[in-house]
Amino acid sequence: MVVMDTRSRPLRALRLSVTDRCNFRCPYCMPREVFGADYPFLDRKEILRFEEIERLAAIFALQGVQKVRLTGGEPLLRKGLPDLVARLARITGLEDLALTTNGALLQELAKPLKEAGLQRLTVSLDTLDPARFRKLCDTEIPLSRVLSGLVAARSAGFGPIKLNCVLQRSINEDEILDLARFAREEGHILRFIEFMDVGTRNGWKLDAVVPADEVLAKLSELGAIEPIPEPLNGRVVERWRYCDGSAEFGVIASVTKAFCGGCDRARLSAEGSLYTCLFAGSGLDLKAALRNGSSDAEIGAMITNVWKRREDRYSELRSSRTGGAPKVEMFHIGG
């Protein structure tokens, strides 16, 4: 089954948040002055249970979803996560099961996640400087734990691991080459992400964006680079490689080169709301349908109807609406 929206974009991928909590307080996602000790995170009974997530994922698969990525908040904070991975890995039609994490708990969880059936892993890494790491992530967890987590993940059989770096002008742009060298030497695939105006509380400004073309020009200092040809449909990352074959890397240019026309992703929040765009202001409550006794067919019809009406193209319109519109916060739907 292929469900198409109003711009002929298929529903192929699902980002599935398993918690709204995180052990970091990165300013571009969960600034501590907003998400402090008294912030009202979701109560356990408000978030989807594993059996509910499994059921919804299976329904999404029937609507054409082939890829699922687990997100948060920080997904590794969700107790018993390997059990959920094992449940999802058994669903017919799901061809790719991945997870994005800050890496702080990978030392303990990489092996059980791999054994449960997780196929791919992405780790956020914005700096290689220990002091800057503490500041950028606003955490007492040391950078060394994340780096050790990468080693543990590789030992568990994950590879190549993707590293996500959100670049901000005058914050960490001076580490572009250091991060690129690290990824190349360790066999990881680095992706530089333009700082985006996700949510309403991260203080986004256009002049804080480091354009992807500038990043590519900088990376060419390490040697000749060339794009990796691939279809445009569904593509979020511009994939590149060093001409000497030493490594692959990518840029995600959501601000300067909007890719709305190829977006095939739906997003499910930890409390069970369906969002059709990273910059959406509201979602469809699927948890209520689950808990009110709706059948799989009825829930599938709800998903299909929402996707068929989908018109989202926020990034293409950003130049004329950089602020003011209500948007769901990134920690709800995982970025």
Question: Could you describe the 3D structure shown?
Answer:
- This protein is of the alpha/beta class and 335 residues long.
- It has a single domain (13-333), classed as TIM Barrel (Alpha-Beta Barrel), CATH 3.20.20.70.
- Helices cover 30% and strands 16% of the residues.
- It is built from 11 helices and 12 strands.
- It has helices spanning 50-62, 81-89, 106-116, 130-137, 143-156, 176-186, 212-219, 286-291, 296-308, 314-317, 330-333; strands spanning 13-17, 67-71, 96-101, 120-124, 162-167, 189-194, 225-227, 238-242, 248-252, 265-268, 273-275, 284-285.
- It has a 12-stranded mixed β-sheet with strand order 7-8-9-6-5-4-3-2-1-10-11-12.
- A hairpin with a 5-residue loop joins strand 8 and strand 9 (248-252).
- Helix 2 packs parallel to helix 3.
- The model has no long low-confidence stretch (mean pLDDT 91).
